[in-house]
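Thread: "does anyone have the structure for this chain?"

Original post by V.I.:
We have the sequence but no experimental structure in hand. Need at least a predicted one for the grant figures.
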Amino acid sequence: MIDDPFFYAVAIPALLLAGINKTGFASGLGVLAVPLMSLAVPPLQAVAIMLVVYCVMDLFAMWAYRRHWDRTNLRIILPAGFVGIGVGWLSAGTLSTPAIKVIVGGIAMLFTLHHWLGPHAVAPRSPTRIKGYVCSAVAGYASFVAHAGGPPLSMYLLPQRMAPARYVGTAAMYWGVMNYAKLLPFGALGQLDSRNLLTALVLLPLAPIGTRLGVWINRTINPVWFYRIVYALTFAVGAKLVWDGLGKVLA
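Reply from O.Q.:
Generated one for you, tokens below.
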């Protein structure tokens, strides 16, 4: 088990942020967890530890929104997400995490800028297979390498303007399935060893705290402000990813 006090100083806020993100509020905010923990441990180890805790968080989020998810969307995004995970497993180590951060962060920033400055549809957009396949595959891959799949998935789900609970439930079901699917490849990569598993076990009590906090926030904020905050935080997270990634790529 990791015994470095600094690790827990960054891991505790990272886990609370991840718990809030798991309920759909501030979708994409969870990508901050791995960078925070990477201040104390190697990024791949941080991803593995977070994966175990995420799997527990997913159970709470999926139960909380078990009646609020969109079957049509899941039929589109789940298969593509598996493809993204497979590509991430096969290409592990060939593309650096900083490079992935730049790509994902850039997508998030362009997406929100288009929403703010571009033309707006009069009515919400319907689910489309091609966009769903692409966004979900990118989300699956980015999630595998850095738990940074939130912004690509948001690019597909947010323009549909679903009711907040339905949007949250769909995302919760998607990430629950995706994270459990990642256990096998991470085990094959040797990242689910006793040290990482014990560390994750110590951090587990934070999972329900963060998730319940996110559920409370979702039920308190009205839909208009919900989406305003989600878009703003998606842009902020994207900017942080680009900044952190470029700093290391150009170093």
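V.I.: this helps a lot. Residues 223-249 form the longest helix (27 residues).
O.Q.: and The chain has one domain: 5-249.
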